Predict the 3D structure of the following.
Amino acid sequence: MLTPVALHPQFEEGTTLDRFLLETLRDHPEATGQFVTLINQVTLAAKLVSARVNRAGLAGMFGATGTMNIQGEYVQKMDVYANETFKRALEHAGVVCMIVSEEEEEIIGIPAPFTPGNYVFAMDPLDGSSNIDTNASIGTIFAVFRRKSASGQGEPGDVLRSGREMVAAGYVVYGAGTVLVLSTGQGVHGFTLDPSVGEFFLSHHDIRLSPETRSYSCNEAYSGSWDTRLQGWLSATKDPAAGWSARYIGSLVGDFHRNLVKGGVFLYPPSRKSPSGKLRLLYEAFPLAFLVEQAGGSATDGRVNILDRTLGSLHERTPLYIGNRDAVEEITRLLTT
Ligand code: P6P
Protein backbone atom coordinates (compact mmCIF):
# COMPACT_ATOMS: atom_id res chain seq x y z
CA MET A 1 0.00 0.00 0.00
CA LEU A 2 1.62 3.28 -1.10
CA THR A 3 1.71 5.99 1.54
CA PRO A 4 -0.23 8.90 0.04
CA VAL A 5 1.66 12.16 -0.30
CA ALA A 6 1.05 14.01 2.96
CA LEU A 7 -1.50 16.64 2.06
CA HIS A 8 -2.05 19.85 3.93
CA PRO A 9 -5.19 19.39 6.08
CA GLN A 10 -6.79 22.16 4.05
CA PHE A 11 -6.40 20.16 0.85
CA GLU A 12 -7.96 16.75 1.21
CA GLU A 13 -7.56 14.11 -1.48
CA GLY A 14 -8.89 15.15 -4.87
CA THR A 15 -7.96 18.81 -4.79
CA THR A 16 -7.84 19.93 -8.39
CA LEU A 17 -5.41 22.54 -9.69
CA ASP A 18 -8.34 24.89 -10.31
CA ARG A 19 -9.48 24.66 -6.66
CA PHE A 20 -5.89 25.02 -5.40
CA LEU A 21 -5.41 28.21 -7.45
CA LEU A 22 -8.71 29.69 -6.28
CA GLU A 23 -7.94 28.94 -2.61
CA THR A 24 -4.29 30.04 -2.63
CA LEU A 25 -4.44 33.02 -4.97
CA ARG A 26 -7.40 34.67 -3.23
CA ASP A 27 -5.26 37.40 -1.65
CA HIS A 28 -2.24 37.11 -4.00
CA PRO A 29 -1.19 40.26 -5.90
CA GLU A 30 -1.49 38.26 -9.15
CA ALA A 31 -5.02 37.15 -8.26
CA THR A 32 -6.30 38.88 -11.34
CA GLY A 33 -8.71 36.87 -13.46
CA GLN A 34 -6.11 37.01 -16.21
CA PHE A 35 -3.52 35.15 -14.14
CA VAL A 36 -5.83 32.26 -13.24
CA THR A 37 -6.92 32.08 -16.88
CA LEU A 38 -3.27 32.01 -17.98
CA ILE A 39 -2.51 29.03 -15.73
CA ASN A 40 -5.68 27.28 -16.82
CA GLN A 41 -4.70 27.69 -20.47
CA VAL A 42 -1.24 26.31 -19.67
CA THR A 43 -2.85 23.24 -18.12
CA LEU A 44 -5.05 22.78 -21.21
CA ALA A 45 -1.97 22.85 -23.45
CA ALA A 46 -0.17 20.48 -21.08
CA LYS A 47 -3.02 17.97 -21.35
CA LEU A 48 -2.94 18.13 -25.14
CA VAL A 49 0.84 17.72 -25.33
CA SER A 50 0.73 14.91 -22.77
CA ALA A 51 -1.81 13.00 -24.85
CA ARG A 52 0.28 13.44 -27.99
CA VAL A 53 3.58 12.54 -26.26
CA ASN A 54 2.02 9.37 -24.86
CA ARG A 55 1.10 8.14 -28.31
CA ALA A 56 3.87 9.78 -30.33
CA GLY A 57 5.16 6.38 -31.38
CA LEU A 58 1.75 5.40 -32.67
CA ALA A 59 0.98 8.70 -34.35
CA GLY A 60 4.16 8.90 -36.39
CA MET A 61 5.37 11.77 -34.18
CA PHE A 62 8.77 10.31 -33.41
CA GLY A 63 11.81 11.75 -35.04
CA ALA A 64 12.94 15.01 -36.55
CA THR A 65 11.25 17.33 -38.97
CA GLY A 66 14.44 17.68 -40.96
CA THR A 67 14.66 21.38 -40.01
CA MET A 68 16.85 23.23 -37.50
CA ASN A 69 15.73 25.83 -34.95
CA ILE A 70 17.52 29.04 -34.15
CA GLN A 71 19.63 27.16 -31.66
CA GLY A 72 21.01 25.03 -34.48
CA GLU A 73 19.24 22.00 -33.04
CA TYR A 74 17.25 19.53 -35.09
CA VAL A 75 13.56 20.23 -34.57
CA GLN A 76 11.59 17.18 -33.54
CA LYS A 77 8.03 16.78 -34.78
CA MET A 78 6.88 16.99 -31.18
CA ASP A 79 8.73 20.32 -30.70
CA VAL A 80 6.58 21.87 -33.40
CA TYR A 81 3.38 20.40 -31.99
CA ALA A 82 4.14 21.57 -28.45
CA ASN A 83 5.14 25.05 -29.59
CA GLU A 84 1.96 25.53 -31.62
CA THR A 85 -0.25 24.05 -28.89
CA PHE A 86 0.98 26.39 -26.15
CA LYS A 87 0.83 29.41 -28.49
CA ARG A 88 -2.73 28.62 -29.57
CA ALA A 89 -3.84 28.03 -25.98
CA LEU A 90 -2.54 31.43 -24.86
CA GLU A 91 -2.75 33.91 -27.75
CA HIS A 92 -6.56 34.14 -27.92
CA ALA A 93 -7.18 34.26 -24.14
CA GLY A 94 -6.40 37.97 -23.65
CA VAL A 95 -3.86 37.16 -20.92
CA VAL A 96 -0.43 37.60 -22.56
CA CYS A 97 1.05 40.55 -24.46
CA MET A 98 3.88 38.43 -25.88
CA ILE A 99 5.28 34.92 -25.95
CA VAL A 100 8.95 33.96 -26.20
CA SER A 101 9.69 30.42 -27.29
CA GLU A 102 12.90 28.46 -27.63
CA GLU A 103 11.57 27.40 -31.03
CA GLU A 104 11.25 30.92 -32.45
CA GLU A 105 13.96 33.57 -32.84
CA GLU A 106 11.75 36.62 -32.46
CA ILE A 107 9.21 37.74 -29.87
CA ILE A 108 5.78 36.24 -30.72
CA GLY A 109 3.13 38.96 -30.77
CA ILE A 110 -0.61 38.55 -30.22
CA PRO A 111 -2.32 38.19 -33.62
CA ALA A 112 -5.46 40.13 -34.51
CA PRO A 113 -8.29 39.93 -33.59
CA PHE A 114 -7.07 38.85 -30.17
CA THR A 115 -6.38 41.32 -27.33
CA PRO A 116 -2.98 41.48 -25.64
CA GLY A 117 -3.10 40.85 -21.87
CA ASN A 118 -1.10 41.68 -18.77
CA TYR A 119 1.52 38.91 -18.77
CA VAL A 120 4.65 37.77 -20.61
CA PHE A 121 5.00 34.02 -21.17
CA ALA A 122 8.45 32.54 -21.93
CA MET A 123 8.75 28.85 -22.66
CA ASP A 124 10.77 25.95 -23.79
CA PRO A 125 7.78 24.11 -25.23
CA LEU A 126 9.34 20.67 -25.22
CA ASP A 127 12.77 20.45 -23.64
CA GLY A 128 14.73 17.27 -24.15
CA SER A 129 12.57 16.27 -27.10
CA SER A 130 15.50 14.44 -28.71
CA ASN A 131 14.88 11.89 -25.92
CA ILE A 132 11.29 11.21 -26.92
CA ASP A 133 12.21 8.31 -29.22
CA THR A 134 13.80 6.57 -26.23
CA ASN A 135 10.77 7.17 -23.99
CA ALA A 136 12.82 9.24 -21.52
CA SER A 137 11.07 12.00 -19.55
CA ILE A 138 10.74 15.30 -21.44
CA GLY A 139 9.10 18.53 -20.46
CA THR A 140 7.72 22.02 -20.96
CA ILE A 141 9.36 24.80 -18.92
CA PHE A 142 7.83 28.26 -18.50
CA ALA A 143 8.36 31.61 -16.80
CA VAL A 144 5.72 34.31 -16.28
CA PHE A 145 6.34 38.05 -15.87
CA ARG A 146 3.80 40.83 -15.45
CA ARG A 147 4.16 43.30 -18.33
CA LYS A 148 5.91 46.66 -17.68
CA SER A 149 4.55 48.45 -20.76
CA ALA A 150 1.14 50.03 -20.38
CA SER A 151 -0.90 48.25 -23.05
CA GLY A 152 -0.99 46.84 -26.54
CA GLN A 153 1.59 44.46 -27.94
CA GLY A 154 4.46 43.60 -25.57
CA GLU A 155 7.81 45.35 -25.94
CA PRO A 156 11.39 44.03 -25.51
CA GLY A 157 11.57 45.81 -22.13
CA ASP A 158 8.75 43.55 -20.91
CA VAL A 159 11.11 40.57 -21.07
CA LEU A 160 14.70 41.91 -20.98
CA ARG A 161 14.65 42.17 -17.18
CA SER A 162 15.78 40.61 -13.89
CA GLY A 163 14.81 37.10 -12.90
CA ARG A 164 13.61 38.56 -9.62
CA GLU A 165 10.65 40.10 -11.50
CA MET A 166 9.09 36.72 -12.35
CA VAL A 167 5.63 36.27 -10.83
CA ALA A 168 5.32 32.55 -11.52
CA ALA A 169 7.25 29.63 -12.97
CA GLY A 170 6.65 25.99 -13.65
CA TYR A 171 7.21 22.95 -15.76
CA VAL A 172 5.32 19.92 -16.99
CA VAL A 173 7.22 16.64 -16.92
CA TYR A 174 5.88 14.07 -19.40
CA GLY A 175 7.16 10.85 -17.88
CA ALA A 176 5.67 7.76 -16.21
CA GLY A 177 2.92 10.23 -15.35
CA THR A 178 2.35 13.84 -16.36
CA VAL A 179 3.11 16.19 -13.49
CA LEU A 180 2.71 19.97 -13.56
CA VAL A 181 4.94 21.70 -11.01
CA LEU A 182 4.08 25.33 -10.29
CA SER A 183 5.00 28.18 -8.01
CA THR A 184 3.39 31.60 -7.78
CA GLY A 185 5.80 32.57 -5.02
CA GLN A 186 3.93 30.69 -2.27
CA GLY A 187 5.91 27.45 -2.26
CA VAL A 188 6.21 24.80 -4.98
CA HIS A 189 3.37 22.38 -5.62
CA GLY A 190 2.97 19.41 -7.95
CA PHE A 191 -0.21 18.29 -9.71
CA THR A 192 -0.53 14.89 -11.35
CA LEU A 193 -2.74 14.43 -14.41
CA ASP A 194 -5.42 11.77 -14.19
CA PRO A 195 -5.95 11.20 -17.91
CA SER A 196 -9.13 9.23 -17.26
CA VAL A 197 -10.86 12.41 -16.11
CA GLY A 198 -8.55 15.01 -17.69
CA GLU A 199 -7.82 16.76 -14.40
CA PHE A 200 -4.60 17.72 -12.62
CA PHE A 201 -4.86 16.74 -8.92
CA LEU A 202 -2.64 18.05 -6.12
CA SER A 203 -0.08 15.30 -5.49
CA HIS A 204 3.00 17.11 -4.12
CA HIS A 205 2.05 19.87 -1.66
CA ASP A 206 4.82 22.30 -0.67
CA ILE A 207 7.80 20.43 -2.19
CA ARG A 208 11.03 20.99 -0.24
CA LEU A 209 14.46 19.80 -1.38
CA SER A 210 15.97 17.15 0.96
CA PRO A 211 19.18 18.92 2.04
CA GLU A 212 20.94 15.71 3.05
CA THR A 213 20.74 14.08 -0.40
CA ARG A 214 24.20 13.67 -1.98
CA SER A 215 23.37 13.13 -5.63
CA TYR A 216 24.90 14.98 -8.56
CA SER A 217 23.67 15.23 -12.12
CA CYS A 218 25.91 16.30 -15.01
CA ASN A 219 27.30 15.10 -18.33
CA GLU A 220 30.70 13.94 -17.10
CA ALA A 221 31.89 13.36 -20.68
CA TYR A 222 32.59 17.11 -20.87
CA SER A 223 34.34 17.40 -17.50
CA GLY A 224 37.78 17.20 -19.15
CA SER A 225 37.28 20.78 -20.39
CA TRP A 226 35.68 22.15 -17.22
CA ASP A 227 37.33 24.66 -14.90
CA THR A 228 39.94 22.71 -12.95
CA ARG A 229 38.36 23.77 -9.64
CA LEU A 230 35.16 22.08 -10.75
CA GLN A 231 37.08 19.01 -11.83
CA GLY A 232 38.46 18.93 -8.28
CA TRP A 233 34.95 19.12 -6.83
CA LEU A 234 33.78 16.27 -9.11
CA SER A 235 36.67 14.00 -8.19
CA ALA A 236 36.08 14.68 -4.47
CA THR A 237 32.50 13.45 -4.89
CA LYS A 238 33.94 10.13 -6.09
CA ASP A 239 35.66 9.46 -2.77
CA PRO A 240 33.61 6.52 -1.46
CA ALA A 241 33.71 8.12 1.99
CA ALA A 242 31.87 11.14 0.56
CA GLY A 243 28.75 9.04 -0.04
CA TRP A 244 27.66 10.60 -3.35
CA SER A 245 25.66 8.98 -6.16
CA ALA A 246 25.22 10.12 -9.76
CA ARG A 247 22.06 10.35 -11.82
CA TYR A 248 21.84 11.85 -15.33
CA ILE A 249 18.94 11.52 -17.78
CA GLY A 250 20.14 14.19 -20.22
CA SER A 251 16.71 15.80 -20.13
CA LEU A 252 16.72 18.93 -17.98
CA VAL A 253 13.15 18.62 -16.74
CA GLY A 254 13.63 14.95 -15.81
CA ASP A 255 16.91 15.64 -14.02
CA PHE A 256 15.55 18.73 -12.26
CA HIS A 257 12.29 17.06 -11.19
CA ARG A 258 14.17 14.16 -9.59
CA ASN A 259 16.39 16.59 -7.69
CA LEU A 260 13.41 18.70 -6.60
CA VAL A 261 11.53 15.68 -5.25
CA LYS A 262 14.49 13.77 -3.81
CA GLY A 263 17.24 16.36 -3.43
CA GLY A 264 20.47 16.68 -5.38
CA VAL A 265 22.48 19.11 -7.48
CA PHE A 266 22.50 19.56 -11.28
CA LEU A 267 25.44 21.07 -13.12
CA TYR A 268 25.78 22.28 -16.67
CA PRO A 269 29.13 24.15 -16.65
CA PRO A 270 30.86 25.89 -19.55
CA SER A 271 32.86 23.40 -21.64
CA ARG A 272 34.76 23.37 -24.92
CA LYS A 273 31.50 22.23 -26.58
CA SER A 274 29.38 24.92 -24.87
CA PRO A 275 31.69 27.80 -23.81
CA SER A 276 28.79 29.82 -22.30
CA GLY A 277 27.00 26.78 -20.98
CA LYS A 278 24.23 25.11 -23.03
CA LEU A 279 21.08 26.03 -21.16
CA ARG A 280 19.08 29.17 -21.80
CA LEU A 281 18.66 31.86 -19.15
CA LEU A 282 15.12 33.05 -19.88
CA TYR A 283 13.06 29.89 -20.26
CA GLU A 284 15.21 27.27 -18.53
CA ALA A 285 17.48 28.73 -15.82
CA PHE A 286 15.14 31.55 -14.67
CA PRO A 287 12.04 29.39 -14.07
CA LEU A 288 13.94 26.49 -12.48
CA ALA A 289 15.83 28.93 -10.24
CA PHE A 290 12.50 30.47 -9.15
CA LEU A 291 11.16 27.01 -8.30
CA VAL A 292 14.29 25.73 -6.54
CA GLU A 293 14.50 28.84 -4.34
CA GLN A 294 10.84 28.39 -3.36
CA ALA A 295 11.72 24.79 -2.43
CA GLY A 296 14.66 25.80 -0.21
CA GLY A 297 17.43 25.33 -2.76
CA SER A 298 19.62 27.66 -4.81
CA ALA A 299 20.79 28.31 -8.39
CA THR A 300 23.82 30.20 -9.64
CA ASP A 301 25.74 30.66 -12.88
CA GLY A 302 28.93 29.93 -10.95
CA ARG A 303 29.26 33.57 -9.91
CA VAL A 304 25.88 35.07 -9.01
CA ASN A 305 22.38 33.88 -8.18
CA ILE A 306 20.54 33.14 -11.42
CA LEU A 307 17.57 35.22 -10.28
CA ASP A 308 19.81 38.28 -9.91
CA ARG A 309 20.80 38.08 -13.57
CA THR A 310 19.17 40.47 -16.03
CA LEU A 311 18.27 39.06 -19.43
CA GLY A 312 20.39 40.66 -22.17
CA SER A 313 19.03 38.78 -25.18
CA LEU A 314 16.08 36.41 -25.62
CA HIS A 315 18.05 33.20 -26.17
CA GLU A 316 21.23 33.84 -24.24
CA ARG A 317 22.85 30.81 -22.65
CA THR A 318 24.20 30.46 -19.14
CA PRO A 319 26.13 28.01 -17.01
CA LEU A 320 23.78 26.50 -14.40
CA TYR A 321 24.41 24.99 -10.98
CA ILE A 322 21.06 24.26 -9.29
CA GLY A 323 19.67 22.21 -6.42
CA ASN A 324 20.61 21.70 -2.77
CA ARG A 325 21.76 25.01 -1.35
CA ASP A 326 24.90 23.65 0.38
CA ALA A 327 26.24 22.00 -2.78
CA VAL A 328 25.45 25.02 -4.99
CA GLU A 329 27.07 27.40 -2.50
CA GLU A 330 30.17 25.19 -2.26
CA ILE A 331 30.56 25.03 -6.05
CA THR A 332 30.04 28.78 -6.37
CA ARG A 333 32.58 29.45 -3.60
CA LEU A 334 35.11 27.25 -5.40
CA LEU A 335 34.55 29.13 -8.66
CA THR A 336 34.75 32.61 -7.14
CA THR A 337 37.77 32.35 -4.83
P1 P6P B 1 23.92 17.10 -23.13
C1 P6P B 1 18.27 18.58 -23.99
O1 P6P B 1 18.77 18.66 -25.31
C2 P6P B 1 18.95 19.66 -23.19
O2 P6P B 1 18.71 20.91 -23.72
C3 P6P B 1 18.49 19.59 -21.74
O3 P6P B 1 17.21 19.05 -21.62
C4 P6P B 1 19.53 18.69 -21.08
O4 P6P B 1 19.75 19.00 -19.73
C5 P6P B 1 20.79 18.99 -21.91
O5 P6P B 1 20.35 19.42 -23.19
C6 P6P B 1 21.62 17.74 -22.08
O6 P6P B 1 22.78 18.16 -22.77
O7 P6P B 1 25.05 17.96 -23.68
O8 P6P B 1 24.30 16.42 -21.82
O9 P6P B 1 23.31 16.16 -24.13
Q: What stands out?
A: The two ends are 50 Å apart (CA to CA). The chain has two domains: 17-204, 215-335.
